[in-house]
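[worker-b] picked up task from shared queue
[worker-b] task type: protein-ligand structure
[worker-b] ligand name resolved to magnesium ion; SMILES cross-checked against name lookup, match
[worker-b] sequence length check passed
[worker-b] input payload:
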Amino acid sequence: GLKQLVGESPVFVTVINKIPAIARCDATTLISGETGTGKELCARAIHYLSPRMGKPFVPVDCGAIPTELMENELFGHVRGAFTGASLSQGGVIQEAEGGTLFLDDIDALPLSAQVKLLRLLQEKEYRRLGSPKVRQADVRIISATNRELDEEVRREKFRQDLYYRLNIIPLMLPALRERREDIPLLARHFLGKYAAKFNKRVTGLCSEAMQILVLYEWPGNVRELEYVVERAVVLTEHAVIPGADIDLPSRRAIRPRKSFKEEKAEAIAQFERSYLEGLLVAHQGNISRAARTAQKNRRAFWQLIRKHQIDVQSFKRG
Ligand SMILES: Nc1ncnc2c1ncn2[C@@H]1O[C@H](COP(=O)(O)OP(=O)(O)OP(=O)(O)O)[C@@H](O)[C@H]1O
Ligand SMILES: [Mg+2]
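[worker-b] inference finished, payload out:
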């Protein structure tokens, strides 16, 4: 359900609050977001809050199935459909009957399969490979992508008509670096999870460790944060994890292609925001103490907070 989705930041909550209504309506849903942002978790939440909850949730990773096998995977085949097809076999559409089919990495779906999927969405009908018999299907389709699907449409890698069909209800998950306020909450959540799993007496993260986590860019988003906390719990010999036990890849190189001026302005804005958030985490939202550490006066400090629209209140609990 929704309880597994940890996060209290406004950008995250706005998205998550849509899930119950999406679950009820049975419409085709496209979840987009970078890798590790929780797309599959949301898809499952939608299924298990929907009237289809008693029927199967079937995930299919379109990126992991070879192009020539994709249609077989989806639609199944009849005996003799191709060399080696000695038995008839249903595909995942049949497996998901009455339930939800989750098509992950939908952008990787081959064009030939796209045509057939469109037909399924429009007519609720399909045929097994090698069979003239039309079958009825009652499945809800939720798909996910970590690419800009409209860009794939422009590049003619993805059919526009299918894109519109899949995207009846869009759900866009924010990157973790766009909701850094949630990092302390998530870190504590995973710390509790892995302390219990490995039966270790680890009770928290020191403020320096937390600051390191809040400042990092998280290209792998929540999944990466989960691994990092898991590793720290496993490796640490302290009850409160010190900064030295947080193991992160070194800062990624800056992307080229932008002008020096743009790159610099962006880097500064990013630095300011991260620096402020790191301080606020370390001082639990206490502005006077944070400003003193930064050696800035309170007024200048507040100006920066407002400039970056940081919610100071969210650093005060926990
Ligand atoms: N908001 C969240 N609260 C708790 N755990 C989360 C949250 N978001 C993601 N996770 C955890 O992070 C991991 C990755 O999530 P998930 O598999 O849903 O990501 P994804 O968007 O499907 O990634 P990919 O594009 O790489 O498939 C999972 O272990 C999931 O439980
Ligand atoms: Mg996934």
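[worker-b] attaching auto-annotations
[worker-b] The pocket of adenosine-5'-triphosphate (ligand 1) is lined by residues 5-7, 33, 35-41, 104, 146, 222-223, 226 (CB under 6 Å).
[worker-b] releasing lock
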